Amino acid sequence: MDDVEYMDIALEQAKIAYALNEVPVGAIVVKDGIVISKAYNRRENDKNVTRHAEIIAIEEACRKLDSWRLDGCCIYTTFEPCMMCMGAIMESRISRLVYGVKKVGNYFPGNNFEVVNGIKKDECLELLQVFFENRR
Q: Is 91 a catalytic residue?
């Protein structure tokens, strides 16, 4: 699989979040070509500010790999991670980050992992826009 195909899986997760009236962000963690975790935002439903898709995906990946070190893993997320999620990505030693929509600004210039953005950008952005338009 390639970045586009993995981002399609993350987008499926974002659509689940959308259906649950959550901000539509999805994330997956991949290691050696295998999707080891999938997640979507659950902040509203869980009533917990830390239940972002990236955090949940990292937690599940750690459980499955029985380690907090996610060296060699790639995380795909439909929206550029917030500071909390970027911190978790960095602390977990994820090797690669791929996301769809870029926010304004860069939280951590000079990070120690590869960052790729813009994968499936239009689809990721459209889902976010429709969600927020419907909330207004």
A: no
Q: Does the pLDDT value for residue 81 go beyond 80?
A: yes
Q: Which long-range contacts (CB under 8 A, 24 or more apart) does 42-48 make?
A: 42/17, 44/20, 45/20
- Please tell me the distance from the alpha carbon of residue 133 to that of residue 136, in angstroms, as a whole number: 5
CA 130 – CA 80 distance, rounded (Å) = 18
Dist. CA 64–CA 66, nearest whole Å: 5
Give the span between the Cα atoms of 23 and 14, in whole angstroms.
8
Say what the pTM is.
Answer: 0.84
User: Which pLDDT band holds residue 104 (cuts at 50, 70, 90)?
Assistant: low
Counting Cα atoms < 13 Å in the Cβ hemisphere of 24 gives 23
Q: Which of 5, 44, 54, 80 is catalytic?
A: 54
